[in-house]
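Saturday, quiet lab. Running sequence design on the structure tokens for the scaffold JK sent over.
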């Protein structure tokens, strides 16, 4: 009867190895899936960077004409500077989405104020920027930042992570949900 303690020990060791193997597999599998979602996030980050560049371009034109109506233009410049700064920072995706939405609003208000200013009216180049190039650039980059493809990949990953037993195990081992980007750049 010497085999009973060995058999129990062997069974427990086997059980521990099976649990460790399942855990390791869940962690690796979901980590690789999350890496694919983060690749899509890289594309979204480049779109947000493009929006920040459009904001910088708008600020260059606005600063050339701030003396036309400083009481109107200066607060709008400050708002756009803040929005662009948040887009370029390391804030969470939800906060960048809110900054992107504010950039659309604040940038549009600044464009409207610049279009009415006498200096822009007298400068054909800046008038073209204010009435054509910059509004189109802000609008197109806002549409690109809609992030449908990224959100689809992130939502599918989150559903698998939360809906499967090995997904729950991967969460226990440190795999986190993918952050969603709210449509239209607004907070959820």
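Result came back. Writing it out in full:
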């Amino acid at each position: 009867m010497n085999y009973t303690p060995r058999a129990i020990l062997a069974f427990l060791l086997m059980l521990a190895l099976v649990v460790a193997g399942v855990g390791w597999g869940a962690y690796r599998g979901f980590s690789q899936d999350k890496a694919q979602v983060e690749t899509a996030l890289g594309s979204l980050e480049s779109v947000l960077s493009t929006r920040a560049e459009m904001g910088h371009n708008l600020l260059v034109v606005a600063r050339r004409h701030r003396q036309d109506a400083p009481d109107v233009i200066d607060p709008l410049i400050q708002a756009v500077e803040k929005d662009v700064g948040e887009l370029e920072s390391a804030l969470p995706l939800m906060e960048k989405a809110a900054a992107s939405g504010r950039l659309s609003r604040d940038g549009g208000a600044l464009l409207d104020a610049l279009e009415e200013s006498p200096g822009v009216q007298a400068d054909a180049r800046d008038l073209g920027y204010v009435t054509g190039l910059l509004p189109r650039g802000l609008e197109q980059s806002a549409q690109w930042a809609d992030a449908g493809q990224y959100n689809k990949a992130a939502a599918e990953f989150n559903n698998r992570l939360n809906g499967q037993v090995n997904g729950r195990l991967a969460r226990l081992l440190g795999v986190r949900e993918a952050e969603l980007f709210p449509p239209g750049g607004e907070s959820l």
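Notes for JK: The chain has a mean pLDDT of 83. The radius of gyration is 26 Å. Ask whether to fix the surface positions before the next round.
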